[in-house]
Structure formats: C-alpha cells, structure tokens
Design a protein that fits this description.
This protein is α/β, with parallel strands linked by helices. The chain has a single domain (4-147), classed as SPOUT methyltransferase, trefoil knot domain (Alpha/beta knot). It contains four helices and six strands; from the N terminus they run E-H-E-H-E-H-E-E-E-H. The chain has a six-stranded parallel sheet with strand order 3-2-1-5-4-6, with helices on both faces. Helix 1 packs parallel to helix 2 and helix 1 (14-27) packs parallel to helix 4.
Length: 149
Amino acid sequence: MAKLNIVLYEPEIPQNTGNIARLCACTGASLYLVGKLGFALTDKYTKRAGLDYWDSVDLHKINTMDELLKANPDANFYYLTTKTKRKYSDIQFKEGDFIVFGPESRGLPAQYVTAETALTIPMKEGQRSLNLSNSVAIVAYEHIRQLGL
C-alpha cells in the first residue's frame, strides 16, 4: 500500500480517534496526533473503539503543527475543511502525503487552510460537517484508490 499519513489536529472525541486508529492499522497509514487531545489515549472509549488494533498502529504524538511541518519540509500537506470548493477527489495524491483533519467542534485554524492546500468532501448544502472518522475513511480510501494497493 502507498504510504499515507493521517493527522488529527487536537481531536476531541475518543471514539473517533479509536476508529481512525483502527482504520490506520488496517490500511498501513501512520497516525499523527497533534496538539492538545480532548482525552487521554488510555481512555476506555478510545481503547474500545480501536479494539486490539492499537499495537498495529504507527502512532506519533506531536506537540504542534509547526513541529510536524518542520520535520517534513518536503511533504505534501492537505487540510480538510468545509471552507473550500476544491474536492478531495480533484487532486492527485502522492506517496507520503499528510492529510490533516481538525477538531470535531471547530475545524482547523485558518492559518493552515490555504487555497493551495485546502480540500473538502462534498455534502448537501446547509449541513455543517461529516463525522470525523467517516471523513478520514473517505479521503484515506481515495488515496488508496489512486495509488493502488
């Protein structure tokens, strides 16, 4: 599988993070948890959602986005947001891309969302957003579809 890096910036809901960890284990994607988490990784809901997949997750805890960006200066970073019209399926993903998702209640800070790097998942007008773990799965499998298994 082509290497994919999933980044959760300040995730708030342990069940979402557990589900995403399980997805990463099953797809071979690395999982980066950045900034302040809204829960402890030892939280029973996080562990339960991830089941026995946690040992298979390439997990990284990073203090800040700047630290992650500095450690990967040549990588492509894409930021998922509802504040753009550019669809995730309109770009050509590459090996080693970082796909960044914001916290469930507020999304990503504006400083990371630029016209060149912002992507969205289309949805019905008037709806706020999709569930975080669903969004990660949609984009992760587009990456896999494009680059092959």
